[in-house]
Design brief:
Layout lengths: L45 E6 L12 E6 L53 E9 L4 E10 L7 E5 L3 E8 L2 E5 L2 E5 L3 E5 L5 E4 L5 E8 L23 E2 L13 E7 L2 E7 L16 E4 L20 E6 L6 E8 L15 E4 L7 E4 L13
Parallel strand pairs: 1-18, 5-13, 17-19
Antiparallel strand pairs: 1-2, 3-4, 4-11, 6-9, 6-11, 7-8, 7-10, 9-15, 12-15, 13-14, 16-17
């Protein structure tokens, strides 16, 4: 047989085959049979999923492995920066490196309400990836505003689509194409370039924004689910035409461009659209209408079944961003575990943007935020 006569003798055992499905156990009975995430894994081990591709990657590309560990891989202290001259793969002098990326799992408490600022000046960029000038990636914001925008003022973003998730208070949004009232448990998307004005009919507001620099949001593919369920197209609400006849007043138009704020003056209202038609418009969605899908036999499915909106990259099955919710639902299954299992993903272009309504089972559960 054509083999190499190595000077150092082999001392390990292996499984053979490229791109073959393998399974292995160091102790007999440690590997669950016909299940991935049993409620009580053998020997009290922790079930953990390691993803090399997105959950929604086509089956022929999907690369995932289930690991059964003594302790979760996330059971460690936070990472701290440790740059050294011998390990300099991301030099600090790159002019485009404006966001410092770290490998820790992160979340943040709500910001304090600030009654001194309006919608535009309440936006705080907390995280992101990519570059709005190149139309790639995302930005993640918190807003916390306490007063209406000025009466003759409008705002738009040239950088990306705003997915707005209210956490407290009500947003009354006047857009060029009509008006939207957005309340907690609703989400709103205002596409790139559409001008709008935000007032606060119920007082101070607070919430989250995902700005999508790359492409636009769409509904996820349903695959074997069929033609309905999850977020149904008929439940999204678009505004009706509503205009103002004002060609005398001075208006200030605020624009977000490449992450910076610009202002221009005009002698008429921007809200003068008397009629419109097309596929490019702001819209909102009541999260209470989300039709959840879950397991009815055994095992816990991937969290991608709770995707409301997705923004796909140029690689099918891999998203730039997913908006995922964990709403109240009935979930009956044998020998499994309702909260999301431990999973570590190295597959997505940008972190998923998730709104969770369930609490983690242990302080070590990992999930991209």
């Amino acid at each position: 047989m054509p083999t190499t006569d190595f000077a150092v003798r082999e001392k390990y055992r292996y499984q053979n085959g490229f791109n073959s499905y393998h399974e292995s156990e160091a102790i007999e009975g440690a590997l669950p049979v016909a299940a991935n995430s049993p409620q009580k894994p053998p020997y009290g081990l922790y079930a953990e999923k390691l993803s090399g591709t997105a959950f929604t990657a086509p089956r022929h590309e999907n690369q995932q492995s289930w690991l059964y560990r003594i302790l979760p891989s996330s059971a460690h202290a936070p990472f701290e920066s440790r740059e050294h001259s011998t390990f300099n793969t991301n030099p600090e002098n790159k002019p485009h490196e404006k966001i410092f990326q770290i490998p820790n799992q992160l979340r943040w408490d709500p910001f304090d309400l600030d009654e001194t600022v309006d919608w535009v000046h309440s936006l705080h960029l907390l995280a992101g990836a990519g570059d709005p000038s190149m139309k790639s990636g995302i930005g993640m914001y918190i807003y916390a505003a306490g007063k209406d925008m000025n009466p003759n003022e409008a705002f738009y973003s040239a950088d990306g689509d705003f997915l707005i998730v209210p956490q407290h208070g009500v947003l009354d949004i006047q857009t060029e194409l009509g008006k939207l009232l957005v309340r907690p448990n609703e989400v709103c998307v205002i596409p790139r370039g559409i001008r709008y004005r935000v007032t606060l009919p119920e007082g101070p507001v607070r919430g989250y924004i995902l700005e999508l620099y790359q492409g636009h949001f769409q509904l996820p593919e349903l695959g074997p689910i069929g033609s309905n369920c999850l977020a149904n197209a008929r439940d999204f609400q678009a505004p009706v035409a509503c205009f103002e006849d004002d060609t005398e007043s001075t208006w200030t138009l605020l624009g977000k461009f490449a992450g910076h704020l610009f202002a221009a003056q005009q002698k008429h209202t921007p809200f003068d659209v008397v009629a419109w038609h097309g596929l490019y418009y702001p819209y909102k969605y009541d999260l209470g209408r989300f039709n959840t899908i879950g397991s009815i036999s055994y095992d816990h499915p991937d969290p991608s079944i709770f995707t409301v909106l997705t923004a796909q990259s140029d690689h099918p099955g891999t998203a730039v961003a997913d908006f995922v919710i964990f709403p109240p639902r009935w979930l009956v299954a044998e020998d499994t575990f309702r909260p999301p299992w431990f999973h570590v993903s190295f597959s997505t272009i940008s972190p998923s943007f998730q709104m969770a309504t369930v609490h983690p089972p242990t302080p070590f559960q990992t999930s991209p935020i």
